[in-house]
Amino acid sequence: MNRKEILLLSIGVFLTVICWLIADIYHASTEDKIKSRITFPEVYQYKISKELLETLKNKIE
């Protein structure tokens, strides 16, 4: 390979890398920043009846 062929090959590789970087930067800027939205857990209001407490108390004894 002479100097001219190496120069053309180097320019081709350089331009390919530059195009790849530009495409990667564009992809990163258009991609969603947060992929999944945060969902908060539901808080349940439990009611404990006196009957249930008495049953458990009797079970322990």
Write up this protein.
The protein is mainly α and 61 residues long. The protein has a domain at 1-33. The protein is built from two helices and no strands. The chain is rod-shaped.
Report mean pLDDT, rounded to a whole number.
88
Separation of termini? 94 Å
Number of helices: 2
- Following the backbone from N to C, one meets helices and strands in this order, namely HH
The overall strand count is 0
The dominant shape is rod-shaped
Largest sheet: none
Helical proportion?
55-70%
Which spans of ≥5 residues are poorly predicted at pLDDT below 50?
Answer: none
Structural class: mainly alpha
Query: In angstroms, what is the radius of gyration?
Result: 34 Å
- Oligomeric composition of the shown chains: single chain
Determine the strand fraction and express it as a percent band.
under 5%
Quick structural overview:
The chain is mainly alpha-helical and 61 residues long. The protein has 2 helices and no strands.
Descriptive terms for the model:
2 helices, 61 residues, membrane, rod-shaped, transmembrane, transmembrane helix, mainly alpha
Present the secondary structure layout.
Elements: H1 3-30, H2 50-60
Keywords: Membrane, Transmembrane, Transmembrane helix
Transmembrane segments: 6-27
